[in-house]
Amino acid sequence: MTVFVALLRGVNVGGNNRLPMQEFRDLLTTLGCQDVATYIQSGNAVFRHDGDAADLSISIAAAIERQFGFEPSVLVLAANEYSAVVAANPFAAEVIEEKTLHVWFLSAVPSLPDTARIDAIVGEREQYRLSGTAFYLLAPDGIGRSRLAAEVEKCLGVSGTARNWRSVGKITQLAATLT
Question: The whole model's pTM is what?
Answer without folding.
Answer: 0.94
